[in-house]
Amino acid sequence: MTNSTSSLWRRHVLPFTFLLVLLAAATLAGDYLLHRLNLVWVGRYLGIPGTLLIIGSLVYSLRKRKYITSGNPKTLLTLHEIGTWVGSLMVLIHAGIHFNAILPWLATVAMGVNVISGMVGKMLLGRSREHVLGQRDHYQLRGLSKAEVERAVFWDAVTLDAMTKWRKVHIPIFIVFAVLALGHIVSIFLFWGWA
Amino acid sequence: MNRTVKLILAANLFVLAVLAFVYPHLMVGPGKLIPGHNTLESDCFACHAPLMGADSARCVSCHKPADIGRLTTVGDPVLKPLTSTPFHQKLINEDCIACHSDHAGVKRFRVQGRFNHALLQKATRDECQSCHKSPKDSLHQQITGSCGQCHSQDKWTPATFDHAKLFELDRDHNTRCVTCHVRNDYSRYTCYGCHEHTLESIRRKHIKEGIRDYDNCTECHRNADEHDIRGEYGNALGERKGKKDRKKRDHD
Fold first, then answer.
1. How high is the pLDDT of residue B33?
2. I need a labelling partner for A183 at 20 to 30 A (CA). Which of B3, B144, B193, B222 fits?
3. B203 in a domain, yes or no?
4. Min distance A66 CA to chain B CA atoms (Å)
């Protein structure tokens, strides 16, 4: 095995697989615990905080597209990754508690694909960042401060060609997920006994 | 996102939206309806009011409260009623959802078979025998009414009444309830229901001790031990006994 293949496996594929397996394991553990502690009803409501976390994590997308201008993009990306992972975990436990209608399950599958796609994006971003880091010297030569160099490397990494191509896949997946989830939420609002 | 992808996405989502309206029970319904409501499964608004959930007013448009437990929705007599006595006529209000859920997925989160007696009108709530039969054991066969003295309406067990707190049913008092509680009226008792205690003998004993108020026996006596005396006279007798003991010791 060459050095670069070993590095790809160790630094990107392994963490990606670990996060995915951890998500599945945490979902099964959460489901098991709720049943064991006779708290199945809690799972019924976990969809709400899960969805709110996912929506909240979209601040990063707004920042990236410059709809908002404040906030460190790198920090927001980290929050986006954590928020969507934890939010997805909550929604998966919520979905696992009951299997009833098709629409929410399609939304769950779309969310799963979205999470995997997001993790692929994270992996690609890491690779892109490494590539761009090689240009750090170039920036430093131009007399930029350390923080400015970090920011410039980040923006270069997210706009790299590979990332642009990935985004062309990730965004449609997200839209499908968002529309299906919205359909599920609207149907709940329409039929739930709020009184 | 290029135009083709957008079109494919839009077409797929449109198809899903159409399916949700044509087959709502499969696409958005939380599980199957009860067998009696099979015909309503694609008509969500037969039972649900938009944004308000299942609506009791829609239930009673088919299930007339006066007929529930007696007649079906088409007017035939109910051959195998689920309860021995129809009680829906005596509910404080028509809140069907408080007890009933139709979708299998919703039922799973409900405690089944639990009836909240607080939903009954007060007069009906106190008439336990109109719905429940007395247990066949020897104790309950002696009792009529007043279930609430021992049992709560939330749970049959544990029974909340401990007779020993009022009077110990020891071997000298191992008798039928009606001996002390005449006509099974548990709001009162008498100690003159047996041959052991007569009004004359009790009066004589108490006057001798200077006690004139002896109508409420269990105020001082909680068991067959006549020296175990509680309450005001118990304290007075205890003090007198203490003085006597001290005098005896001084004298010795």
1. 92
2. B3
3. no
4. 18
Nearest CA-CA distance, residue B124 and chain A, Å: 27
Residue A20's domain spans which residues? 3-191
Which residues in chain A have their CB less than 8 angstroms from residue B26's CB?
101-102
Q: How many domains does chain B have?
A: 1
Q: B1 at the A interface (CB within 8 A)?
A: yes
Domain count, chain A: 1
Please state the φ and ψ torsions of residue A68, each to the nearest 5 degrees: -125, 150
CB contact under 8 A, A98 and B17: no
DSSP SS3 for B48: strand
- The count of C-alpha atoms lying within 13 angstroms of the C-alpha of B50, restricted to the half-sphere facing its C-beta, is 1
Structural tokens at position A192: 């739930």
The pTM score is 0.67
pLDDT in tens, B4-34: 888 888 898 899 999 999 999 999 999 999 9
Q: Chain A 22-81, CB below 8 Å of chain B: which residues?
A: 40-41, 44
Q: Is B11 within the bounds of a domain?
A: no
CB A4 within 8 A of CB A108: no
Residue A7: per-residue pLDDT: 64
The pLDDT tens digits of the residues spanning B171-194 come to 888 888 888 988 877 778 999 988
Range of the domain at B53: 31-133
Tell me whether residue B175 is in a domain: no
Strand, coil or helix: B4: helix
User: CA dihedral defined by A124, A127, A128, A134, rounded to 10 degrees?
Assistant: 180
What was the pLDDT predicted at B172?
A: 84
| Residue B106 Cα to chain centre, angstroms | 25
